[in-house]
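Chapter summary example.
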Amino acid sequence: MPEQVIAGKIVKGLSEKIAASGFVVALVLLGGVGTSSYLSMQKLIENKQGIIHNYEVLEALNNTFEGVIDAESGRRGYLISRQKIHLETYNNGVQETNKTLKALQQLTGGNPTQQHRLNQLELLVAKRLANLKHSINLLEQNQSDAATQINLTAQGWEAQQEIRASLQIIDQEEQGLLQQRVAATDTIVRQTIIVVTVGSCVSLSLLLGVYYLLKQQIRLRRRTEAALQKRQEEFRALVENSPEPITRLNHQLQYLYVNPAAERKLGMPSNEIVGRTRAELGFPAELTDHLESCWQKVLATGEMRLVEFEFPDSANGTAFYQDYVVPEFAPDGSVASIFSVARNLTPLKQSEQLQAQLLEQLETERERWEAIANNMTEGLIVADLAGNILTMNPAALRLHEYQNIEQARRSLKELNVAFELYFLDGRSLPVEEWPLARALKGETFSNYEIYVKRVDTGTSWFGRYGGAPVYNSAGEIMLTILTVSDISERMRVNEELRQNEQRYHSLVLATSQIVWNTTDEGGFASEQLDWSAFTGQTFDELKNFGWLNAIHPEDQHYTEQVWLKAIADRTLYEVEYRIRRYDGEYRNFAVRGVPLQEPDGSIREWVGICADIDDRKRAEVALRKAHDQLEMRVHERTAALQLSERRYRSLVLATSDIVWTTNAAGDVVDDLPAWRELTGQSEAEIKGLGRFAAVHPLDRERTAQLWSYAVKMKRTYHIEHRVRLADGTYRFFLGCGVPVINDNGDIQEWICTHVDITERKQIESALWQAKEELEVKVQQRTAELQKLNQDLRQSNQELEQFAYVASHDLQEPLRAVTGYTQLLVQDYEDLLDESALEYTAYIVDGAQRMQQLIQDLLIYSRVGTHDLKLAATDGNRVLSQVLSNLQVMIAETNAIITHDPLPTIVADNTQVMQLLQNPDWQCN
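The structure predicted for these 924 residues follows.
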């Protein structure tokens, strides 16, 4: 530098006195330089605090947006899986968002413009969080459908875009302030450099102190480098020992690195993988296209992506993987490469398949029971504990005149408005005595006959209801079930019979009747007052079979044959014939005779009655017609009951469940072949409660208690327990018992089933264990990555600060070396030979290149706060300069450097030179 050369000449030519004075002046100048540097450092510190403040604001803005994203992620996870753990993610996102908004208010307290923008941002964030909260509330209240959620998602997306736009405005303002402070810092640095350059003539006297300080800094740097290397080794050990395949790829989708797990999965060593694409390695084209499409999107957008794929596996045939693809950014913000972590999802997929199979089995069971309910002749109604109708089978819908189940889903309060219920005697039935209300109170009943009227249509009918609560395994009521049958036709027929009976009774009372009795042989052996009074016959005329003389001649022979046949067969005697009255008029009579038997079965006598039916012919015809109609309906109902019984027997034969029965007390009295075949017990061993001996000892007492409770309370019996099979092994079974209630409300018998649920239990256990293990691994891996990222971030900050400070201090001795070498050449040029001149030229050139490298280090230390100046850079020229800088190293190591012609690229000249001159790169 010219100033240093001139200052060196002056110092050299002065006398000792002038040199001493110059030294004093140099000290004064050094003090001035120090004062100026101190003031400049104060300004730099102020600017640094401002820059830190700007970075804190920018980081808070980023955390605000990430908090909103976390809240949205938690809502989306809860929407898909309905698991409470996702609500924790949502709540953490909301708390983080509110926390960062408060921090932003404090950080921008001195900027009214930013305060106003933050107020608008808070409104937008509150709107977005309210949208998410509303969506979650709908899910928790079971009031959500797909259309509502889609609409809320669309609204949330618009609000999120507004938040992003508002954040960008605030971010741009902070970026502007940051650039202003950086520009001011650069100005101060340049001024400081000028001042230090002017005072460089006195810096030589401080070389020893600088040298000592430099050694201290070198030792500090070495410790820092050792710590960084240790962290890198720890990170490498983590990657190398990871059980999951980890790879790195460049823009050409060529592998740059694979860890041992990836080598094992790909089936070849890393030296055969690195530098080649999946297609070049011979992997299936379809899988390669699928993965490379995802990788290209990450390289293009810089956003992390997840992709699932199948990979051939020698052990299981096919393994399922989920690939986490993360971009790695260059200092300029572009995507330099991608980092891929493949996670084995095979156990999870297998669990999902098992779960799907289980759901398919449950669906089959549901369809089976729906088919039974849909084909029942009786109506079936299911309600919840609040009295809300959940479902009705077709028979119940038709009876209550509902078109579909949606119309039938009403509460007990709504049903009280829609229907009116009455006792059979016409009294109004209070709502607390309605069948549904009784079942909700825990009552079990049957044959509850009432009169029902639908208010809006006026339709009415007689119904016979039965009801019972449904208990869970804890003995708590979870549902109520009602059965209903339309007995209107039966009630109408009974009413007709009652009316006909009343008519017949009245007719009997209003008509003269002849009551008689004979011996066991059919002859009159005693006075028959009624007969004699009506016919006028004396006892001598009617005794034995003389009574036949009072019968119309056309009816005598038939009557005698019927009477003799009844005597011979000992059967009921029924006949119609005409009897001559005492005045000679014949009247039609209905005659009925019944044999009265002794305890030994012999006939003691015959008792009969002759009823005048001349005036009742019409009533008799009407009665016969009603009787015929009743008979037809009885036959129809009998056929329906037989069909229902056949369906039940077919269901028992078709199902794989174990079906067995007991008496009303819960004891086995009949043989149970299916149970004996299952457990290997004998017929004698299962009698009474002996079947419990096949239940696992740990479940036996609980099984017996629940069975006794169900028998005592007349409630449905449900239990899950282990049963010993004939081969001695235990399997899980679901037992269910239903009491058969007769018309008196007493238990007639118990019908029970046992279903093998061992596979379901094993699947449930495996699913819970896999879930717990996966949660633990995810938490451990997340904690490790967070700690590693924090350590790397702190190490990078320390290295950046060190480079910034060292880049300034290292230039001072280089200036002195350059200046004094140039003075040496000028003063002693005549005394130096060509080799000495060449060596001094090397010294000056090397010192200047070293100074340039230190300046480049300063620029690199500020690369995070400055925009790079990209320009056309000739690769050949840069390489030549690098080879010139490294010529000593090349000579010492006897290295041979070869290269192909390099292109001209758009890049930062300094960074390209640093890249080629990097020691780590040279070693590799």
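To summarize the output: Confidence is low (pLDDT under 50) at residues 1-24, 507-511, 651-656, 920-924.
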